[in-house]
Amino acid sequence: MRQASIELGVASLGAGLSLIGVVYAMEFPRDSAYLPTAVLSLLTLLLVMWATKAFVLVRQQRTEPLQFQKGEVRRFVVLVIASIALIAISPWLGFTTSFLIFVPLTGFLLGYRKWKWLVLTGVVFTALIYLVFIVLLSRPLPAELLMRLL
Question: Does residue 130 contact residue 96 with C-beta atoms inside 8 Å?
Fold first, then answer.
């Protein structure tokens, strides 16, 4: 199978799904609709650009056979499993704690070994999650497990 053909299919499917998300988000109340509509619109645009590039490559028959390397497949599987675990434990453990653990642990599992940067990235990402939801959107995050136990 050719790489550009797969990219065309994935990008087209993603663009269709994100466009459905845009339409759905536009039905939210006005204050709540702005951010999801903007993000999904940008995502749709980027996916359409990717699909267009892949389409051109397919039409010009300038595409290469898809070749997986063992390390790439492993990293992809690690990301999928870690993301599923994050989605499953976040409501129970709390979003702040989950991201504080998830970001450095995933980086480590993907092969990064500089703990200082892994921890710093986790702290910065967690702070951004907090700022976006609590400060910018004024939306509370679910209570952390530690706070519920106290």
Answer: yes
What the block records as the tokens of 8 is 């065309």
On whether the CB atoms of residues 83 and 105 are closer than 8 A, the answer is: no
Measured CA angle at 122 (ends 118, 126), to 5 deg: 170
Residue 49, CA distances (Å) to 1, 22, 55, 86 in order: 22, 17, 10, 30
DSSP per residue, 25-39: HTTS-HHHHHHHHHH
Helices (H), the chain: 3-25, 30-59, 70-93, 95-109, 115-130, 145-149
**CA 24, CA 143: separation in Å to the nearest integer?**
27
Q: 3-class DSSP state for residue 2?
A: strand
pLDDT tens, position by position, 102-135: 999 888 888 888 999 999 999 998 899 888 888 8
